[in-house]
Amino acid sequence: MCVCVSMCVCLCVCAHGCTTVCDFAAGTNEAEGDSGDARGVGEVAAQLEQQTLEDKERPEDAEEGISFISSDAHLQQRCGWMKGQTDPPTVPICELYPNGDFPKGEECEYPPSKDGRSAAWRITSEEKRAMDRANEEMWSDFRQAAEAHRQVRSYVRSWIKPGMPMIEICEKLEDCSRRLIKEDGLNAGLAFPTGCSINHCAAHYTPNAGDPTVLRYDDVCKIDFGTHINGRIIDCAFTVTFNPKFDRLLEAVRDATDTGIRCAGIDVRLCDVGETIQEVMESYEVEIDGKTYQVKPVRNLNGHSIGQYRIHSGKTVPIVKGGEATRMEEGEAYAIETFGSTGRGAVHDDMECSHYMKNFNVGHVPIRLPRAKHLLNVINENFGTLAFCRRWLDRLGESKYLMALKNLCDLGIIDPYPPLCDIKGSYTAQYEHTILLRPTCKEVVSRGDDY
């Protein structure tokens, strides 16, 4: 909107409340007479024509349809004019979107209730929209973390290849993630260690220091990593393969995850989500090396509700029929994840442990070992109740901490999460998204162009 002021200086006001001077001099004066008026009009017309040409060369605000007519960097920042990301990505998400308006995920209408009633009323309900706005700060934290996740995983897909050591893959991914999330103690950072479980190992594997494992052409690798802002966690995973013989396995698991997402919603029973996921997963058969397998959901792995600084906050989303009849509730966040296997469809603890997490509900426990006390202080300061791994302790300069770590585990202060494996020779795949059960709609906040 343009507003003319008494000095004949035109102020352009954008929707964000920013003003900038167009500097269109009127050039008229009553004392100059008609010739002065004509000359002034001619000058203004020329300047307007020049300004129009310049405006066409400048980008427009895609959302508001407003032309920015100033090159002033401060104005651009205040109005939320997004800067470009580098390649490889190095610019933090908060600097790409300085106005705090982070990209939303996929917004979906809730599924109809059992009696067939539509949930479309939620979108137009003024009460629900007001409740949505009241939680905007929380949704914004999730969206910022989700955008970091999207950009990091896009970057990872551009270079991950057979022959790379798993420890290099994880550290390269985590370095990028720390930059984009703009790591800041417990206010922003990585939500849990990068899982890169291979083949029959379904989850909770990340290499410890000295692990020589290398990614191979015939591997099925699950990349599972998390980001957070103010403890609002994005838990999202995908599977990487290079041999096309695994394509059908990945398709089955991705379809099952998307089905679980579609079924999820306010007042939906968790057991109903699991039954639907199982039905879709088991409808797939895959042929690998001349042998046909029915894809089995891994029955003892689940999705879960997500709390602030708490990756598993109490509710589980099964991927087989049965389970809890507990209902999903408005305002909750969930990780909808499915695992498909060519093995038994059940996992057990195996291999060397790398993942650990402080017990969220632990109270005061007396600790006698001085080194254990020191280690707990390090964990509290750097990770709180978020999961961590031994590599991260190494990165902080900690050494000779294994006995202290075992002591904290024995006392129940820290819980170990060893790798979870199906039978050797089998293959497992995983896909996962974080969803927000907002009052108006369901937002698949981690959805991207890739999956």
From TrEMBL:
Cofactor binding, note field: Binds 2 divalent metal cations per subunit. Has a high-affinity and a low affinity metal-binding site. The true nature of the physiological cofactor is under debate. The enzyme is active with cobalt, zinc, manganese or divalent iron ions. Most likely, methionine aminopeptidases function as mononuclear Fe(2+)-metalloproteases under physiological conditions, and the catalytically relevant metal-binding site has been assigned to the histidine-containing high-affinity site.
Which CDD domains does the record match to this protein? MetAP2 (cd01088)
Q: Name one GO cellular component term.
A: cytoplasm
* Top enzyme class: hydrolase
TM region(s), chain numbering: none
Q: Which residues bind a divalent metal cation 1?
A: D224, D235, E432
Q: Does the keyword Protease apply?
A: yes
Under which name does UniProt file this protein? Methionine aminopeptidase 2
